[in-house]
Design brief:
Strand order of the largest sheet of chain B: 1-2
CATH topology of one domain in chain A: Rossmann fold
Structural class of chain A: alpha/beta
Distance between the termini of chain B: 46 Å
Shape of chain B: globular
CATH class of chain B: Mainly Alpha
Number of strands of chain A: 10
Strand content of chain A: 25-35%
Structural class of chain B: mainly alpha
CATH topology of chain B: ABC transporter involved in vitamin B12 uptake, BtuC
Helix content of chain B: over 70%
Radius of gyration of chain A: 18 Å
Number of helices of chain A: 9
Shape of chain A: globular
CATH superfamily of one domain in chain A: P-loop containing nucleotide triphosphate hydrolases
Oligomer: heterodimer
Order of helices and strands of chain B: HHHHEEHHHHHHH
Number of strands of chain B: 2
Strand content of chain B: under 5%
Chain lengths: ~240, ~290
C-alpha cells in the first residue's frame, strides 16, 4: 500500500526510569491509512512508546507530532480529542458499567464537534465490533475476547485517526484471534484510520501490517516491509539470541 | 420492648447525619483516593454559617439549604483547584491527605477566631416539636434529618447512574488513567466529585445546626464517625454508606441505653475494628471488590 502523509511522527524520543534507559533516541513514523506493527522481545519498551504517545509519560528528550502539530506534554484527554485512541494489553474497560455505558462515556467525552451524536457513534461502534446484542451486560461479565472488542468499540466511538493496539491477541484462542482480526481489518477498511500495533508474537503482525518496526532495548533495530524485517539478521538475533557460529 | 423501638428510632435518626457525611467521603475517595479528613470540619463550618444567618437575619435553617448547599459546591470547586489540583496528580496520596489535615486545622482555628470556643446550638421555634406515632415520640427536627439523608442518597445515586457527568465520575473511580485515555479531563472529574462531596457537607451542616451543640473542635470527631460509617457500609456504594451511618447511630444509641453513655465511643470504635478485621469490604460492599493479594 502506498504511504500517505505522515500522521504521527516521533523524533529523537528518549525516556529513562531511574538508571534504566527504556527508550533511546527513537525515530518512528506512522502515515495516514497505514497499518504499522511495532514488535520486539519482552521489555523492549513497546508499551512505554504508547504511554509516551498518549502522554501518560513525558519524554526526557525528543518530540512527538500528530497531524503536524506538537503534542508532547499535552494532557492525555486532549490527545484523545485530537484523534488518538488506545487499547490496553490488560483490558481497562470500566468493569462495573454496562457495555453501553462504557462506549457512551467514551463517545461523549472522547471527541468534540462531530456531526454524529454520541448515541449514534456508540451504536455504530457496537455494530462494528458485533457487541450490539450485549450492550446491557456489565463489562465484568464479558469474556476476555469480548472485553477486547469493547475496548476497541470505545476507541472507535470517538472517530480516531489513529488507533493504538497493545497486544490485542494476548490470551485469546485461535478462533477469537481470527474474529478480532476480522473486526479490526473490516473497520480499518471502512473508517480508513491508521493503526499502530504492538505485538510480542510476530507472525500475525507480519501478515496484517503494511510496515513493521522492531524495538530492542529501547532502540529501533529495523523498520521496513514485513518480509525484509523477518529476514533481517539483527531481528533474528534480538529474538533468538546471537548466532553460535 | 417499646423503649427498644424508641432507642432504634433515635439511632436511625441521629445516624442519618453520619450517613450524609459518609456519602460525601465515599464520593471524594472515589476519585482522589484519600479519606477527606476535613469533611467533619467542613460540616461544622456550614453549621456555623447556618447558625450565623439564623442569628443575624432570622433565616430558617432549612431555608438556608438553598444558599448553603450551592455555596458549599462552589467552595468545593475553589478548594479543589486551589489546593488539590497538583497534589491529586501525584502518585503519592500522602500529599493530598496532609493537605486535608492542614485544611482541617486551619478551618478549625478560623472558626475559633470568628465565633470563639463557646459551643453553639440553635433554638428555633419548632426545636422541641414532637410527633407521636404508635406511642413513639419523635422530634420533627430529627425526622427531618432522615429525610435529608434519604434525599441526599437518592440525588447522588441518580446523578451517578443517570447523568453523563455521573457516569464519568463512576468511570474515574474505577480507573483514572483509563478515564483520561477516553478523553475525560481528570482534574475536572475530580473537582466535580469533590465539590459534590463538599455540597453534601453543606446539607449535613444544616442538619448539625438544627440538632447538635457544636464547637470549633467538633469536626474531627465527626469525620472519624463518618469514616466508621463508611467502613461499616463498604466504600463505593451510596446506599451502603447511608446504611453504615444509620447502623452506627443504632450502635451508639443501643450502647448508651443498655450499657451507659460512657460506652458509646468504645462500642462504635470496637465495632469499627471488628468490621475491618472480619469484613473489610463492609457489611454491604461486594466481596469481589476487595482484592486479596
Amino acid at each position: 500500500m502506498p504511504a500517505g502523509a505522515p500522521l504521527l511522527t516521533l523524533s529523537g524520543v528518549s525516556k529513562h526510569f531511574g538508571g534504566l534507559q527504556v527508550i533511546n533516541d527513537l525515530d518512528f513514523v506512522v502515515h495516514e491509512e497505514e497499518t504499522v506493527g511495532l514488535i520486539g522481545p519482552n521489555g523492549a519498551g513497546k508499551s512505554t512508546v504508547f504511554n509516551l504517545i498518549t502522554s501518560i509519560y513525558q519524554p526526557d528528550r525528543g518530540s512527538i507530532k500528530f497531524k503536524g502539530n506538537e503534542i508532547t506534554g499535552l494532557a492525555p484527554h486532549k490527545i484523545c480529542h485530537l484523534g488518538i485512541s488506545r487499547t490496553y494489553q490488560l483490558v481497562r474497560a470500566f468493569l462495573k458499567m454496562t457495555v453501553m455505558e462504557n462506549v457512551m462515556t467514551a463517545a461523549v467525552y472522547g471527541a468534540k464537534h462531530l456531526s454524529q451524536s454520541p448515541k449514534q457513534r456508540t451504536m455504530e461502534a457496537l455494530e462494528l465490533v458485533e457487541l450490539s446484542d450485549k450492550r446491557d451486560i456489565k463489562a465484568a461479565h464479558l469474556t476476555l475476547s469480548d472485553r477486547r472488542l469493547l475496548e476497541i468499540a470505545m476507541g472507535l466511538s470517538s472517530m480516531p485517526a489513529l488507533v493504538l493496539l497493545d497486544e490485542p491477541m494476548a490470551g485469546l484462542t485461535e478462533v477469537e484471534i481470527q474474529r478480532l482480526l476480522g473486526v479490526i481489518g473490516a473497520t480499518r477498511d471502512e473508517r480508513r484510520f491508521s493503526v499502530l500495533w504492538i505485538e510480542h508474537k510476530v507472525d500475525a503482525v507480519l501478515d496484517f501490517c503494511d510496515r513493521v518496526g522492531v524495538l530492542d532495548y529501547g532502540a529501533k533495530i529495523a523498520d521496513g516491509c514485513p518480509d525484509d524485517v523477518a529476514c533481517n539478521p539483527k531481528v533474528i538475533e534480538a529474538y533468538l539470541g546471537e548466532p553460535v557460529a | 420492648m417499646g423503649s427498644l423501638v424508641q432507642v432504634l428510632t433515635n439511632g436511625i435518626l441521629l445516624g442519618s447525619m453520619y450517613g450524609i457525611a459518609a456519602i460525601g467521603l465515599s464520593l471524594i475517595f472515589g476519585t482522589m483516593r484519600i479519606i477527606f479528613i476535613a469533611q467533619g470540619t467542613m460540616i461544622v463550618l456550614f453549621a456555623y454559617l447556618v447558625y450565623w444567618s439564623f442569628q443575624k437575619a432570622g433565616i430558617d435553617p432549612y431555608l438556608s439549604l438553598l444558599t448553603v448547599v450551592p455555596l458549599a459546591f462552589v467552595l468545593g470547586l475553589g478548594l479543589f483547584y486551589l489546593l488539590f489540583r497538583k497534589a491529586a496528580a501525584l502518585e503519592d496520596r500522602n500529599v493530598s491527605l496532609l493537605l486535608a489535615v492542614g485544611l482541617m486545622y486551619l478551618i478549625d482555628n478560623l472558626i475559633l477566631k470568628a465565633w470563639s470556643a463557646t459551643p453553639r446550638g440553635l433554638n428555633i421555634s419548632y426545636s422541641s416539636a414532637m410527633i407521636v406515632v404508635w406511642g413513639l415520640r419523635v422530634s420533627w427536627l430529627r425526622l427531618a434529618l432522615l429525610g435529608l439523608a434519604l434525599a441526599s442518597a437518592f440525588v447522588v445515586y441518580a446523578f451517578l447512574k443517570k447523568t453523563r457527568v455521573g457516569t464519568a465520575v463512576r468511570a474515574a473511580s474505577e480507573d483514572m488513567e483509563a478515564t483520561t485515555i477516553q478523553g475525560i479531563n481528570s482534574v475536572w472529574v475530580s473537582a466535580i466529585s469533590f465539590a459534590i462531596g463538599i455540597a453534601l457537607a453543606g446539607v449535613a451542616g444544616v442538619g448539625m445546626a438544627t440538632v447538635y451543640s457544636f464547637d470549633y473542635q467538633f469536626g474531627f470527631v465527626f469525620a472519624i464517625k463518618a469514616l466508621v460509617a463508611l467502613a461499616l457500609g463498604g466504600i463505593g456504594n451510596v446506599f451502603g454508606a447511608l446504611a453504615g451511618g444509620l447502623l452506627l447511630g443504632i450502635i451508639e444509641n443501643l450502647a448508651a441505653y443498655y450499657v451507659g453513655i460512657a460506652w458509646i465511643e468504645i462500642a462504635s470504635y470496637g465495632v469499627f475494628m471488628l468490621v475491618l478485621i472480619f469484613l473489610p469490604q463492609g457489611l454491604f460492599g461486594r466481596r469481589a471488590l476487595v482484592k486479596k493479594v
